[in-house]
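Hi support team,

I've been running sequence recovery on a batch of backbones for a student project. Most finish fine, but this one hangs at about 90% for roughly twenty minutes before it completes. I'm not sure whether the input is malformed or the queue is just slow. I've pasted the structure tokens below so you can try to reproduce it. Let me know if you need the job ID as well.

Thanks,
M.K.
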């Protein structure tokens, strides 16, 4: 009996998660479509924003190691931002199959945000109800909005707990898949990835493609870089085709 209830609960949770994800992905799609239309210089603006934070933190850095860490965090944030912009996918909504357990950190951050808002709602609601009891009818719509916000935050926390639990249960399987993919990429693009990562780490700013090409030291690096670019071009072409199909309703 207990097992049947547990299975029923898990099935309901999966159904709710899928429905919730559809809403989230629809919002995500609208978000990036709007940003690209209204704010095409978004990547440059965000890079300038991250650079400003980096430069401010560098003023307080006391050692070369601290400076190196600050600069690498800056470059990492820029790379993540670019990936979001060009793939039109939020990093905290989609699992990176090369680092699946990294999704847990995003989920925990999102969960903490919703938990903080729940605490705000818990303080605000008694105050609003007291004001309403004293005859302040203008509090009615605010109570309604706060109630909806509370329900949304509870739902988000529940979904994130479910996802974290699911990832932890499938940890071994996800790690096997990730290791296999990493090994395959290493075989195909190992030298090219080494070339790019070395240039990224040694440069103060993210290197241009010209700077990376200028740093090529072997024929193998050249061939792998060429194949890496061709593969990325195919992925982007397929992504654009999928986007066109989605717009056309096919």
């Amino acid at each position: 009996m207990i097992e049947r209830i547990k299975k029923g609960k898990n099935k309901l949770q999966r159904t709710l998660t899928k429905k919730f994800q559809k809403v989230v992905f629809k919002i995500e799609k609208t978000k990036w479509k709007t940003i690209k239309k209204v704010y095409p210089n978004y990547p440059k603006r965000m890079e300038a924003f991250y650079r400003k934070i980096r430069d401010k933190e560098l003023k307080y850095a006391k050692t070369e190691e601290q400076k190196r860490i600050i600069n690498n965090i800056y470059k990492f944030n820029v790379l993540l931002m670019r990936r979001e912009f060009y793939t039109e996918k939020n990093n905290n909504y989609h699992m990176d199959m090369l680092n699946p357990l990294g999704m847990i950190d995003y989920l925990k951050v999102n969960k903490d945000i919703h938990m903080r808002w729940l605490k705000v709602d818990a303080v605000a609601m008694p105050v609003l109800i007291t004001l309403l009891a004293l005859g302040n009818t203008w509090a009615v719509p605010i109570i309604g909005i706060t109630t909806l916000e509370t329900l949304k935050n509870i739902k988000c926390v529940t979904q994130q707990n479910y996802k974290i639990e699911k990832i932890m249960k499938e940890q071994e399987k996800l790690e096997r898949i990730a290791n296999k993919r990493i090994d395959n990429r290493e075989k195909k693009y190992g030298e090219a990835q080494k070339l790019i990562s070395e240039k990224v780490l040694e440069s103060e700013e993210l290197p241009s493609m010209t700077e990376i090409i200028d740093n090529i030291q072997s024929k193998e690096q050249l061939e792998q870089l060429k194949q890496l670019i061709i593969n990325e071009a195919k992925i982007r072409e397929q992504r654009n085709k999928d986007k066109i199909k989605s717009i056309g309703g096919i």
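--
Follow-up from support: It reproduced on our side and the slowdown came from queue contention, not your input. Residues 188-250 form one domain. No action needed from you.
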